[in-house]
Amino acid sequence: MIALGDFNGDGILDLAAINFNGNTVSVLLGVGSGRFGTQATFPVGINPISIVVGDFCGDGRLDLAVVNYSDDTMSVLLGTGTGSFGAQIIYSTGFQPCWIVTGDLNGDGRLDLVVVNSYSSNVGVFLGNDSGNFGPQTTYPTIASAALVVINDFNGDAHLDLVVISSSWPTISVLLGTGSGTFRSQTTFVSTSRVYSAAAGDFNGDGRVDLVVSNGPPSLFNVGVLLGNGDGSFGLQTTFYAGSGSTLQWIVINDFNGDGLTDVAVANYVSRPLIRSVSVLLGTANGSFVLKTTIATGNDSIVYGFAVADFNNDGRLDLAVPDSKTKNRVNIFLNTCT
């Protein structure tokens, strides 16, 4: 998994990638034209699995936060502003933390962190302060085998809420925020299939936040859109074909063709036979999506998370796709939309 930001203040995007088996984070400083310099590595906990970027201490420098799956910790690395990072600050999480997001949950202008604790079946909230430190986690029960959390204002009250998914069960959990850094008890609803990844946005232009998900069994080969009702609940899922493959997993959204509508990119995590790729679906004004193109990532690759940015400054959004199998590399796919 990777995260992006300008870590040395030169106006060029840099890249941070977690090394699950190496117990480190690699930082590659951008040199322009979609290229990056040699990696520098920084120690974190055992089996880092998810990463976010933010200015946690309010000094104008970007910092990193990582959750470590096998030692039940979170590592915070404060940035120096030169592209390097200080020694990790370690926080205890629940069992098997697997996902992390950031946002200002209590409206104090400081970034907070939300961690999915998979084996504990809860989310942990860490409230931040000006020094880049975080208080101990406060936990909120979620669905079993929680795998991922999406943060947004799903009921239109200007407070950040959480949507939690499980890759093991066809259930989605919604925790509405109070604006004080706490959350109400979860509300759950059943999906038509297991959900592997999700993203939030207003896909039909009605001012309400919707969900787009990559579906697992039994609804293979498609992404689903659940239109928001504006109160933290969602309508029934509508599915759209996303190309052949056995498991569509990682999903990101943005406007890839510059028409002002939100599009979707979804990665095929495992394929049988070996057809591994990223599919791009273009959005329409009514919240539906149409498969535009499929980008081959190599039959020996396993795509593990990816990110969107304009890496070569041509005004078009590109994809950074890490390969977590044998090559330990990040592939940059430049946008050629006209």
Automatic annotation (TrEMBL):
It comes from the Eukaryota. The keyword Signal applies. InterPro entries: FG-GAP (IPR013517), Integrin_alpha_N (IPR028994). SUPFAM superfamilies: Integrin alpha N-terminal domain. PANTHER family: SENSOR KINASE-RELATED. This is VCBS repeat-containing protein. Keywords: Signal.
